[in-house]
Amino acid sequence: MTAQTLTPPAKTPAGAAPSAPKRHRRGGWGIERRPGWFSYTLVAVFFIAGAYPLYWSFIMGSRDNTALTQTWPPLLPGGQFWKNVAEVFDTVDFWKALGNSIIVAVVISASVIFFSTLAGYAFAKLRFRGREGLMVFVIATLAVPTQLGIIPMFMVMKQFGWTGTLGAVIIPTLVTAFGVFFMRQYLVDVIPDELIEAARIDGASMFRTFWHVGVPAARPAMGILGLFTFMTAWTDYLWPLLVVPQNPTLQVALSQLQSARYVDYSIVLAGAILATLPLLVVLVLAGKQLVSGIMAGAVKG
Amino acid sequence: MTSTLSSPPRRQTRPSAPRPAASTPRPTFRQRLNRWDVRYSPYFYVAPFFILFGLIGLFPLVYTFVVSLNDWNLLTGPGDWVGFDNFASELTDHLFWNSVFNTFSIFFLSAIPQLIAATVIAAVLDQNLRAKTFWRVSVILPYVVTPVAVTLIFSNMFGEKYGLINNILESLHIPGIMWKTETLPSHLAIATMVNWRWTGYNALILLAAMQAVPRDIHESAAIDGAGAVRRFFSITIPSIRPTFIFVVITATIGGLQIFTEPKLFNAASSIPGGPQRQYQTTVLYLWDLAFNRQSFGKAAAVAWILFVIIVLIGLINFAITRSISGAEAKAISRRKQRRLAQVRQREMDAAAGTITEGGVE
Question: What ipTM goes with this model?
């Protein structure tokens, strides 16, 4: 992790982990004291506000419809969660939707990681004419709301007969400006130029150099980028709703629960919790990486 | 200095790939190949992004404009060339302006409380809390819940008849609120969903900015007798301003394109965005226009108007940032700046030390 040490700290809020130990090594003048109960109350309240709606949904999703009409919500889950889940499976093709979402998110993540690393590496470490100009262009495209192009995109997909196929969901996000920018910011400091030069002198081709020097160095950032791309692809709703309503991704299927003729809200909420579970697992396993990824995303160009 | 600067002839002494035929025949070809490799590889590496952006970013924008100039129908295809008629009719359509009003109303209701809360939470997390990682992870718990799930959950909580919130209000003898019927309550409900999901995320971004403030500044202010609150307003807030603006800009770009929450807020409504379009945002209006009312031309015009609005707001944000940071720079006393420079210098020296020790991974 040479990235953090190379740049002046004032400009690099990259990740909690590297900067955190530093501040505690120094002696404090009262500012490193443990904060008082007020701070803990505040974060605890915030945590409860974040967790309660989920917990409430779980309670409601594990009881029958009558629980919703009670004045004070029950505090403990009932025993009907699996029964409601079974209803979810009857209403929508949950497993297929889950499979579709996994395919979409995995393919998009793999592609975004590969192409963003490749482009980010070129922008960070290779010299070529027009590099600065092209990089500015990449940054400018970050602000372009591509969602507004849905009309022609839909027309094109329809023209090619791709509507209803997962390809229509995958293709528009195979590489993102954010990914390129993110990898460039990371790689510019993390690979010493001497290493690339050494590989070149040893006779490695440009691509071999990228593969054996660039990619290993980029691995931590690739992980974080992959995590976020996966999340974004997983949560996307507007575009899949438009192109694959009959072959839904998980989000589309979930929304269809609500538009069934007879809406049973315990089932809707059980479905919402069920669809959230995979990401809760991600949060538990990779919460630290998510946090440092969000914090690293704050790095300004 | 990058590898591309080293001269090809020197590399010639060490053949690149250990292929069997490499030793004697056609050295000039390999040399040329190598030069091509060096010169054109970077373009191949960055090309996928530009090609794809051209296809899914630039082309749709341009083509949206073309569509907007036609009386284009979803089913019958391109109709007559109508010039700017679609723009004119949309700009005078009260449904369009209704959607713009809703979008901005929801945006302000979500952005302002969210940023205040995120700053406070970030300041708390910036302290030396016990179980720091746990708290940090806990604030992004809502972020991993997808917008569709968030909307399903909150749509129930805000239910008018049996929703959690109205149940509680009624048990306190307060009449229930028509969250899905009245304009302002529906905007509040949708803003709540946005806030719930994004506050913690933005708090972490602001936390990152706060941690980048050199501790020495805090320490010297503390020596000078500044309390925690004073340090927060005089040191933390000014130093995180650039990041703050960054968060505002991203929130704007996202907030003006809000779709999922209003789309799914009330499944019973046949018109997306409420029976009287109480919370129909502009993207939802665009959707309705294009795919329910089949008027691609008008929808394309709306897309372009929204695009221009978003870009304009981005530019205004940028200009405001510029002028604020300009004024700010003047306001900072020279002494403070000198102190800051010293701190930076020290950090740089320390960093340089780490590099020489650290070496290559």
Answer: 0.82
- Which of B108, B156, B106, B99 has the alpha carbon at shortest distance from B272? B99
> Which 3 state secondary structure label does DSSP give B77?
strand
Contact A113, A179 (CB under 8 A): yes
For chain B, the farthest-separated pair of C-alpha atoms sits apart, in whole angstroms, at 94
Identify the structural domains of chain B with CATH numbers, from first to last.
3-68 (no CATH), 93-352 (1.10.3720.10)
CA A282 – CA A293 distance, rounded (Å): 14
List the single residue in B141, B243, B358 with the smallest CB-CB distance to A2.
B358
Contact B144, A279 (CB under 8 A): yes
Q: Check if the beta carbon of residue A7 is closer than 8 Å to that of residue B103.
A: no
**Averaged over B235-245, what is the pLDDT?**
83
- Residue A167: exposed, middle, or buried by beta-carbon count in 10 A (0-12, 13-18, 19+)? middle
Given this model, what pLDDT does residue B7 score?
Answer: 42
Q: Which of A57, A206, A242 sits opposite B37 (nearest CB)?
A: A206
Closest of B178, B190, B213 to residue B114, by C-alpha: B190
User: What's the pTM value of the predicted model, to 2 decimals?
Assistant: 0.80
Chain A hits for B296, CB-CB cut-off 8 Å, are 151, 155
Q: How many CB atoms lie within 10 A of CB A53?
A: 22
For residue B139, what is the nearest residue in chain A, using CA coordinates?
A47
The structure tokens listed for B293 are 């009312």
Nearest residue of B to residue A153 by CA position? B60
**SS3 assignment, position B295:** strand
Residues of A in contact with B209 (CB under 8 A): 13, 298
Cβ–Cβ under 8 Å, residues A292 and A17: yes
Answer whether A175 sits within 8 Å of B49, measured CB to CB: yes
Per-residue pLDDT of B23-59, as tens digits, reads: 555 567 878 888 888 888 889 988 999 998 888 888 8
In chain A, residues with a C-beta closer than 8 Å to the C-beta of B205 are: 294-295, 297-298
At B73 the three-state DSSP class reads strand
β-strand partners of B77: B73
pLDDT at residue number A1: 35
Which of A213, A230, A15, A151 is CA-nearest to residue B63? A151
* Per-residue b or e along B197-220, where b marks 16 or more CB atoms closer than 10 Å to that residue's CB: bbbbbbbbbbbbbbbbbbbbbbbb
Fold of A93-296: MetI-like fold (1.10.3720)
Q: How many CA atoms lie within 13 A of B76 on its CB side?
A: 10
